[in-house]
Write a structure and sequence with these properties.
With 74 residues, this protein is mainly α. It contains three helices and no strands.
Amino acid sequence: MRRTGLPALLVVISFAGCTPKNDGEGSKHVRSERERDSILGASRLPGATGVRRALGVSDSAAARNARLDSVANQ
């Protein structure tokens, strides 16, 4: 049983990689990198807290840069 399990698993994985793309109505919405990172950060996967913190730092830097730009424009 062990000898046939691994080759069968490899065949299943290779066929799963060859599935055709779904070009229907559902594939029109493409998520941005920010949206994907936000979803990942909300999950319970290992490293999700690091993603959340990185998003927070990115937001903080963007807000700081916006404040500096508004001061420079005055």
